[in-house]
Specification:
With about 425 residues, this protein is mainly beta. It contains 4 helices and 30 strands.
Length: about 425
């Protein structure tokens, strides 16, 4: 019986389904094989079935043929269009997946074959995988809104991920896109459950940024699959930079590179020197009460204080602000007399407060204080060089891209942030 006839009678053949396999068997017929479409390929697709009849996503997919046929191509894709990587044996008799299937997904497997006479065969099989019992979820931050160009993105996991390969699986499925396009960016593993993302340089001004997860159904590690999570879209405003030179006691305020104002200020006095480096505005409060006890200075000591403070813009969680300090106006522009904050007149502080937003850049130069730490006291992410930042990625060497790709390094030479220890924080306040 020729292949053409065999094709015409294929519809009358029964599809045999075993508990662990879908058997694909051809029938015979007569006709012109050169004029016939591909015949019903004698291929068998095997997956790790469960009691529900669905496939176990933790077990491989296997395709095989017998007799004189050979496999010429196999594609296995889920409903989202994600393809499963696989490997074909040298003799063309067997193909097996080399990557895990996604949990809770429908797969379509397309098999192309060729028999000993060179005639093409084809078979399409569909099946479902079981849902993940315990999912890995990610929450993106900050909340939707408009931010300064220094605002890093955050991804918080609901379960710890320690293994480097598992981290790479997570990181490779987090996507970041910016319009206008940002410079190459990368994720940094701050700890087992927290990642930060920043471009090589600041975000573009007036941009739209979207971060999303493609982890749904992805096997991260044994027994742990990604879940479905909400994407986040936020925007940036103008590129606002407030640059304080502690040596000259003046702040230069820039908007999109243009100097808008130069303000006289005072920064930390000896023993309370303001931190150097790039900080990112965390929040703003029109009024708050500052006390020395909140940063460990005993009441009644020479440096104790209890003051009402207006127009306070926070840049560290340990108590460093840019704020109104009318008591030090005589020193502003000429001397450093604060306990670490950047003080200015009430009028200037009010103007500054009204012209900045969360995520804007506050940079301090030429202070005798330490450099702002990367992660334990606010957003000091920009104080790591790009090479240092890339070492916090789990994706290995190579170019970093806006889709979450990044350069990485071995686990032993990653740049690790210091542990948070309130006792070692440099006293910062008014």
């Amino acid at each position: 019986m020729s292949h053409g006839s065999r094709r015409r009678t294929a519809l009358r053949c029964a599809l045999l389904v075993a508990p662990l396999a879908v058997g694909l068997t051809a029938c015979n017929g007569d006709g012109n094989p050169l004029a016939a479409p591909p015949y019903d390929a004698p291929a068998k697709v095997v997956f790790g079935a469960t009691g529900s009849g669905k496939a176990d996503p933790g077990r491989p997919l296997d395709v095989s043929v017998k007799d004189g046929s050979k496999i010429t191509d196999v594609t296995a894709t889920d409903a989202a269009g994600r393809a499963v990587r696989g490997e074909l044996s040298a003799d063309g008799k067997r193909w097996h997946s080399t990557a895990a299937l996604a949990a809770g997904s429908h797969y379509t497997v397309r098999v192309s074959t060729e028999n000993s006479d060179g005639h093409p065969g084809r078979k399409v099989v569909g099946f479902d995988t079981t849902s993940a019992s315990a999912g890995l979820h990610v929450t993106f931050g900050p909340k939707a809104g408009t931010y300064g160009v220094g605002q890093p993105l955050t991804a918080t996991l609901n379960k710890p991920v320690k293994d480097r390969a598992a981290r790479a699986a997570v990181e490779g499925n987090l996507s970041v896109a910016s319009t206008p396009a940002a410079a190459a960016g990368s994720w940094y593993w701050v700890d087992d459950k927290t990642l930060h993302y920043r471009p090589r340089v600041y975000w573009p001004a007036n941009a739209k940024i979207t971060v999303s997860s493609n982890l749904s159904g992805v096997r991260v590690q044994k027994g742990l699959f990604g879940g479905v999570d909400k994407p986040l879209t936020l925007h940036t405003g103008d590129r606002v930079e407030a640059i304080t030179d502690a040596a000259t006691d003046h702040m230069t305020f820039k908007d999109n590179g243009k100097v808008v104002k130069t303000l006289p200020v005072t920064t930390g006095k000896p023993g309370f020197d303001t931190r150097n480096g790039v900080k990112v505005i965390l929040e703003k409060e029109a009024f708050l009460r500052m006390t020395s006890q909140s940063i460990g200075i005993a009441a009644g000591s020479a440096d104790s204080y209890d003051l009402p403070v207006y127009w306070a813009t926070r840049v560290t969680w340990s108590g460093e602000f840019v704020h109104a300090a009318p008591w030090s106006e005589g020193s502003q522009g000429s001397a450093n007399v604060s306990h670490g904050c950047t003080g200015m007149s009430t009028e200037n502080a009010h103007w500054f407060f009204d012209h900045v937003r969360q995520g804007d850049i506050v940079r301090v130069l030429n202070s005798k204080g330490p450099t702002m730490t990367p992660f334990d006291n606010g957003f000091g992410d920009w104080n790591l060089t790009w090479a240092q930042w890339q070492k916090g990625s789990a994706l290995g060497a190579g170019g970093a891209g806006s889709a979450g790709g990044a350069n990485g390094s071995s686990k032993t030479d990653q740049v690790q942030p210091p542990a948070f220890d309130p006792a070692r924080l440099h006293p910062q306040d008014v």
